[in-house]
TrEMBL record:
<dbReference type="InterPro" id="IPR016484">
    <property type="entry name" value="GTPase_Der"/>
</dbReference>
<dbReference type="Pfam" id="PF01926">
    <property type="entry name" value="MMR_HSR1"/>
</dbReference>
<feature type="binding site">
    <location>
        <begin position="230"/>
        <end position="234"/>
    </location>
    <ligand>
        <name>GTP 2</name>
    </ligand>
</feature>
<dbReference type="InterPro" id="IPR006073">
    <property type="entry name" value="GTP-bd"/>
</dbReference>
<dbReference type="InterPro" id="IPR005225">
    <property type="entry name" value="Small_GTP-bd"/>
</dbReference>
<keyword id="KW-0690">Ribosome biogenesis</keyword>
<comment type="similarity">
    <text>Belongs to the TRAFAC class TrmE-Era-EngA-EngB-Septin-like GTPase superfamily. EngA (Der) GTPase family.</text>
</comment>
<dbReference type="GO" id="GO:0005525">
    <property type="term" value="F:GTP binding"/>
</dbReference>
<dbReference type="InterPro" id="IPR032859">
    <property type="entry name" value="KH_dom-like"/>
</dbReference>
<feature type="binding site">
    <location>
        <begin position="57"/>
        <end position="61"/>
    </location>
    <ligand>
        <name>GTP 1</name>
    </ligand>
</feature>
<dbReference type="GO" id="GO:0043022">
    <property type="term" value="F:ribosome binding"/>
</dbReference>
<keyword id="KW-0677">Repeat</keyword>
<protein>
    <recommendedName>
        <fullName>GTPase Der</fullName>
    </recommendedName>
</protein>
<dbReference type="InterPro" id="IPR031166">
    <property type="entry name" value="G_ENGA"/>
</dbReference>
<keyword id="KW-0342">GTP-binding</keyword>
<comment type="subunit">
    <text>Associates with the 50S ribosomal subunit.</text>
</comment>
<comment type="function">
    <text>GTPase that plays an essential role in the late steps of ribosome biogenesis.</text>
</comment>
Length: 438
């Protein structure tokens, strides 16, 4: 199901990130100027002809140095190579083959992965060929002269590359649950992501038709597949220093829109903030199911602050906790993390649920006999003729009445509560459409 992976390998400053940008389209990877900056592995969706694949920049690979972070980069490169269908080894055509290149070549020859040798910074066509020819000595086959900056030569490189990239057949529509993990920076989103998926092997899959740097992560539990939406957004924030707040809230809005169930993560130590309320408002507006996850519960002084007290404070600040389950977890200790998925399943089920017209009208009849609709100032009483569910995700019920204006906010809320009490709908918003029928 996951797309094939192409690992980009090479020493620092040869142009790996520039090449990744070139292959993955604009404004995706972030180019670092300092050599050897550690970074998370970021998978960039890319395609050539009919082949789709993910490009992963492994970071600057150096062998003969014992600086602290280098083993980590080597580890990353190794992991990337292990899961890759092919690798592009990037070298610098302007400096010629270096000792470091030879070491990497030697290392690559020990791996069974097909390797293409890209000689970068070959802007001038004639000179480029001469520059590239010098790299035959690495023993990795034909050197391809390219310019990652200008894009020249990359076509030939990709033509050759896709011979090694398996074609993925379209996956049929599944019954996966799309989950967005949202929340302010530092509430523990990526810790939760790792708790679900495991740090080392996230299976990623790009989404067609959306921004190309939005990457989802899939995982499975008890036969149910979950698609964690835009996990690139969750991981990526580590590598940008600017505009995090703005960046993440817009990204969160997009993720909410694509989700079935939103995991709204709140920091137990900070409580519900104004930004959390903004996110909550958007979840309701978009009609998404929701589970409220209060994280870092391990860090809360328990004897002074019980779950019950906490829930009450939250309810006053997050009014939708009327219908959304709240769970208190610790991504760090793993406490109750797996239980989140049970609530997600339940919320997803409520969100898709369809109720027959006869059941809806039984509930309505009952509700009206307990508590009749209000009478307007003119003395005429509101009447509900009948109701029917017109759509799901979220469940939407149209109520046909004599005059919608006669049904005030209080009564509307009463009816909604009746539906919830009689029919469940735990974890999902429901919509009532009041339609006047003369
Ligand atoms: P990385 O460390 O391997 O990821 O290298 P970068 O992509 O950050 O590039 C290192 C430097 O080489 C930057 O200053 C780039 O502008 C430059 N560079 C990258 N590709 C090319 C190219 O095709 N031609 C030239 N002349 N310079 C390039
Ligand atoms: P994100 O910005 O929402 O992705 O947050 P991170 O997952 O990067 O976590 C931010 C910080 O909170 C990190 O230092 C984590 O170690 C810490 N953290 C995350 N989850 C927990 C938790 O359950 N308990 C405690 N005590 N700290 C946590």
């Amino acid at each position: 199901m996951a797309l094939p992976i192409v690992a980009i390998i090479g020493r620092p400053n040869v142009g790996k990130s520039t090449l990744v940008n070139r292959l993955a389209g604009e404004q995706t990877a972030i180019v670092h100027d300092e050599p050897g900056v550690t970074r998370d592995r970021t998978y960039m969706p890319s395609y050539w002809n009919d082949r789709e694949f993910l490009v992963v920049d492994t970071g600057g690979l150096v062998f003969n140095d014992d600086t602290e972070f280098l083993p980590l980069i080597r580890q990353q490169a190794m992991t990337a190579l292990a899961e890759a269908s092919a690798a592009i080894f990037v070298v610098d055509g302007q400096t010629g083959p270096s000792h470091a290149d030879e070491e990497i070549a030697e290392w690559l020859r020990q791996h069974p992965v097909p390797v293409l040798l890209a000689v970068n910074k070959c802007e001038s066509p004639d000179q480029g060929l001469i520059q590239a020819a010098e790299f035959w000595q690495l023993g990795l086959g034909e050197p391809y002269p390219i310019s990652a900056i200008h894009g020249s030569g990359t076509g030939e490189l990709l033509d050759e590359l896709i011979k090694h990239v398996p074609q993925v057949t379209d996956v049929p529509e599944t019954n996966e649950i799309k989950v967005a993990i949202i929340g302010r920076p530092n509430v523990g989103k990526s810790s939760l992501l790792n708790a679900f998926v495991g740090e080392e092997r996230a299976i990623v899959s790009p989404i067609s038709g959306t921004t190309r740097d939005a990457i989802d992560t899939m995982f499975e539990r008890d036969g149910q597949t979950y698609r964690l939406i835009d996990t690139a957004g969750i991981r990526k924030k580590k590598s940008i220093e600017y505009g995090t707040e703005f960046f993440s809230i817009n990204r969160a809005f997009k993720a909410i829109r694509r989700a079935d169930v939103v995991l709204m993560v709140i920091d137990a130590l900070d409580g519900v903030t104004e930004q959390d309320q903004k996110l909550a408002g958007r979840i309701i507006d978009e009609g998404r199911a929701c589970v409220v996850v209060v994280n870092k519960w391990d860090a809360v002084e328990k004897d002074s602050y019980t779950i019950y007290d906490y829930e009450k404070t939250m309810q006053s600040r997050l009014h939708f906790t009327e219908w959304a389950d709240t769970i208190f977890v610790s991504a760090v200790t793993g406490q109750r993390v797996e239980k989140i998925l049970e609530l997600v399943n339940q919320a997803a089920e409520s969100h898709k649920r369809r109720v027959s017209t006869s059941v809806i009208n039984e509930v309505l009849e009952d509700a009206v006999s307990w508590h009749s609709p209000p009478t307007s100032r003119g003395g005429r009483q509101g009447r509900i003729y009948y109701g029917t569910q017109v759509s799901s995700q979220p469940p939407t019920i149209a109520l046909f009445v004599n005059d919608a204006k006669r049904f005030n906010e209080n009564y509307r809320r009463y009816i909604e509560r009746q539906f919830r009490q009689q029919l469940g709908f735990k974890g999902t918003p429901i919509r009532l459409l009041w339609r006047s029928k003369k």
